[in-house]
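Structure record:
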Amino acid sequence: MQALLDELLALKKRADALLRLGDEVANKRADEDSAKAEYKALKDGLTARLKEFERRPPAGTEDWIVSTFSAALRAAHIGMRSPTNASPKNSGWRNSVDDLVLELSYYSNTLAKGLGE
């Protein structure tokens, strides 16, 4: 299902942007609060989307697609283990965002291969 792959790719794009924002904060070119707010929004969004998806997966979607997408959201959320009020200057915050990017890359590639793209 292309829509789910597109959603994962959009999340990965946001995670990449968050990583760049964290670099800008570390180099004092951006506000720390904006990075914290984006991190919290992304983490809360993942939680809400996972709950919604598990309650109502798209009708007619193959089981392996549902499982892969659900695993992607869960792994991405788990990867975001840094507290939402942590400073982007902290190495734990950066590692958390790195893990988020890696998980989303892995699962989007897996889903794309399965869909034959």
